[in-house]
Amino acid sequence: MNQALFVLQLAIELAFALLAIRTVVSWVRQPDARHGNLALALSALTLVIVLSSLFGGSGVQAQLFTDAALIMFLVSGYGLLMFRDSFVPLSPATTRAVTVAIVVIGLLGIMQELYDDMIPGITDHQAGYARDVSERLNSAAEVVFTRPARNREDIEAVTRELIAEARLQLPDFRLAVEFRNHRWLDGDECERTLGFLEDLDLAFVCVDEPQGYDSSMPPVVAATSDLAIVRFHGASATIPRPRIP
Fold first, then answer.
1. Angle CA(212)–CA(216)–CA(219) in degrees, nearest 5?
2. Tens-binned pLDDT, residue by residue, of the chain (245 aa)
3. SS3 letters for the chain?
4. Cα dist. 206→35, 128, 131 in Å?
5. Which of 24, 55, 97, 235 is the most buried (most CB within 10 A)?
């Protein structure tokens, strides 16, 4: 399955690269604004697709890849807009407004990345804030951090790392995890997921909800720590619920 996804991703990158090269060649042969804008848009979009495979790291290099992908994405959008303008002209005011908006969005995105790096311990400050809020609520209720995720290998490792980080940042709290995608609990993955929570002493949130939908979670009942939690979603008007004697 992983090999098939890799081949598919490679095929998509190759297809966009060939399309971008074809449009650039067409622009060289016929150097007008219409062909130039289309070549710009497709070339920038190809770079976004290629750079997306380099996401997920950390440090300066990862930030540069992210910033470059953001800039290329905005450039691609600008190229497509100007390509459309060659067929259905926009007013000068609209063109200026869109251009300014693209530049501002790009600058804000890069500034946000720099802001996170310029403030030492910003993640620790956020964790401290979450800890303070949790302490205020601890006497009244159990605190449950929810994080939606799909069980795909490209994000699974990151998600597990974030869950483990929550345990590390809040060692004195009884934490629970509720999954929102059934893939976490399908087949053999269910045992692996529950084992992961048990190793970190994290409670598994059992979910009672209507079945039969694409978003339905399997009715898995398990305890992975000394804390047991069940979340009741309520009955569905279209799917009858069995009565519990």
1. 95
2. 467 777 777 787 788 788 888 888 888 888 888 888 888 888 888 888 877 766 555 556 666 777 778 888 888 888 888 888 888 887 888 888 888 887 887 777 766 665 555 555 545 666 666 667 666 666 655 555 554 444 455 556 767 777 888 788 788 888 888 888 888 888 888 998 899 889 888 899 998 888 877 778 888 999 999 888 888 876 655 555 544 44
3. CHHHHHHHHHHHHHHHHHHHHHHHHHHHHCCCHHHHHHHHHHHHHHHHHHHHCCCCCCCHHHHHHHHHHHHHHHHHHHHHHHHHHCCCCCCHHHHHHHHHHHHHHHHHHHHHHHHHHHCCCHHHHHHHHHHHHHHHHHCCCCCCCCCCCCCCHHHHHHHHHHHHHHHHHCCCCCCEECCCCHHHHCCHHHHHHHHHHHHCCCEEEEEECCCCCCCCCCCCCCCCCCCCEEEECCCCCCCCCCCCC
4. 56, 28, 24
5. 24
- Residue 57: phi, psi to the nearest 5? -90, -165
* Distance from C-alpha of 223 to C-alpha of 174, rounded to nearest angstrom: 13
Instruction: Give the position of tokens 């200026």.
Output: 96
Q: Which amino acid is at 144?
A: V
Instruction: Give the whole-angstrom CA distance, residue 196 versus residue 202.
Output: 9
Task: Supply 173's token pair.
Answer: 């709290």
pTM over 0.85: no
